[in-house]
Amino acid sequence: MKPITTLGHYTLATLQEIGCVAIFAARGLKSCFVPPFFWREIFRQIMQIGFYSLPIVGLTAFFAGVVIALQTYVGFTRFNAEGAVATVVLITITRELGPVFAGLMVAGRVSSSIAAELGAMKVSEQIDALMTLRVDPYKFLVAPRIIAGTLMLPVLVLICDIIGIMGGFLISVTRLEFSTGTYLAQTIHNFVMMDLVSGLVKAAFFGFTLVVFGCYYGFNSALGARGVGNATTNAVVFACICIFILNSLLTAAFFGI
Predict the structure, then answer these.
(1) What is the pLDDT of residues 57-72, one digit of tens each?
(2) Res. 222 pLDDT band, cuts 50 70 90
């Protein structure tokens, strides 16, 4: 009976954790729509989450486009279908790899940063000090990050799509001997707005998710350096897992699968 007892224990603990995260997310989301709004803090988080994440997201997108074009070309030469490389790069980047890669890169950078920052604030009792000063920590610490993450990740994904498609274009023209005009014509001809919109909607969900996990584990960090380190690790791991789950669900919802 011991394995069954252990399994039940972990199942209940997991369900309890999911419930706590859901309640925290609902409270944080509610704080985003109730004044006062801390505009200076919102702008600071927009810079931290959006602008400062652009280099790593752009670099990842560029090389993703390069690799997709190369691998597609190698595979399609077996079927004499090399002309479909531009279409595959376009669809793959806009539908899937753009939002997912951007979400994972930002989760690794931002979720860990948020969890570490809020965990350190909890250890040093700065969150308690905010409550003593009658400042709602959800409105001052959580709401600006949720607003910035939800708004800025679609912007990052849009830039990521452009850079990724450009990476596939450059490697195709310079290395695979594609015609510039033909490649661009195929890309424009096969562009479907729904592919781009689905990716941007996914990005908004991913941005909300990775910020919520960072804030949740930062707020619930155990005291001490080890507690902050564990909170940082948990925030990144669970944010990435949730991004993959959401990606599957949203893909099925958008394309009627």
Answers:
(1) 999 999 999 999 999 9
(2) confident
Token couple for 177: 């001997």
Phi and psi at residue 175, in whole multiples of 5°? -110, -35
Q: Which residue is associated with the tokens 């709004």? A: 37
Each domain of the chain, given as residue ranges in start order, spans 2-254
213 exposure class (CB count in 10 Å sphere: 0-12, 13-18, 19+): buried
- pLDDT tier at 10 (50, 70, 90 boundaries)? confident
Among the listed residues 95, 56, 57, 88, the one whose alpha carbon sits nearest the alpha carbon of residue 70: 88
| Alpha helices, DSSP H, located in the chain | 2-31, 39-49, 54-76, 85-92, 98-106, 112-123, 126-132, 137, 143-174, 180-189, 193-219, 225-254
- CB-CB contact of 148 with 52 (8 Å): no
Contact 119, 217 (CB under 8 A): yes
CB 221 within 8 A of CB 126: no
To the question of pTM greater than 0.85 for the whole model, the response is: yes
Provide the sign of the torsion angle of the four alpha carbons 57, 202, 136, 222, taken in this order: negative
| Coil, strand or helix at 108 | helix
